[in-house]
Amino acid sequence: MKELTFRRASRDDVELLDVMSKAPHVLPNLGTDQPWDWPREVEASWQEVWISDLSATSSPMGVVVVLDAAADPSGYWGEVSPGTYAIDIWIADAAQLRKGYGTVMMLHAIDLCFHVHSAHTILIDPLAENEGAISFYQHLGFEVIGPRTFGADECIVLRLCRPDSGCD
Ligand SMILES: CC(C)(COP(=O)(O)OP(=O)(O)OC[C@H]1O[C@@H](n2cnc3c(N)ncnc32)[C@H](O)[C@@H]1OP(=O)(O)O)[C@@H](O)C(=O)NCCC(=O)NCCS
After folding, report:
1. Which of 17, 55, 76, 137 satisfies CB 3.0 to 4.6 Å to 142 for a cystine?
2. H, E, C per residue of 64-84
3. Residue spans per domain, the chain
């Protein structure tokens, strides 16, 4: 098990989150439809922003956002039923890519969605060109629903259903 420590981001982390979301291998993959507005994001009642630190050094290395898609007032996901959550994730430290940390971060986020928030469905929307991320989500059990355009972003929507939730 990769050693990561998770903590909820606060207003004190706004500058850090800004830097982490602008890393050259991250920014082009985050899409353009709704730019992250960190002072607002960390205090939004319908989502949780988590920072993952490498346990050995306490260095921040990644961000994972868990949000209640049905409660998001922006209506980004359109008409979705209560219990539909969405996840955004990135590893900001390029030296830590492809070491299994993304998997640990997703398992943390999936556990929050299904077991803390009782979500029945998790949605993800990588850019269609981000084939590596799509493979990553499929590796975790997400299934492709299909293409969808969010603003100017051509995305692929994937979903994961909580076992025994009746989500079809
Ligand atoms: C997507 C991301 C979070 C994956 O994290 P990661 O720690 O690199 O992924 P893991 O090491 O846990 O990968 C687990 C498995 O997913 C698949 N996978 C991960 N990255 C992949 C890639 N670039 N290409 C193909 N398969 C990939 C592989 O099956 C991998 O297992 P393997 O390394 O044993 O072959 C990370 O690449 C990232 O932050 N990318 C930049 C930002 C981004 O694209 N975020 C997603 C926006 S939707």
Report:
1. 137
2. EEEEECCCCCCCCCCCCCCCE
3. 4-124
What is the reported pTM?
Answer: 0.96
Q: Is 130 in the pocket of ligand 1 (CB under 6 A)?
A: yes
166: left (phi over 0), alpha (psi -120 to 50) or beta: left
CA of 62 to the centre of ligand 1 (A): 12
Closest ligand 1 atom, residue 125 Cα: 48
| Placement of tokens 């490498």 in the chain | 54
The size of the chain, in residues, is 168
Class of domain 4-124: alpha beta
> How high is the mean pLDDT in each 10-residue block of the chain (168 residues)?
90 97 94 88 97 96 98 94 97 96 98 97 97 98 97 96 86
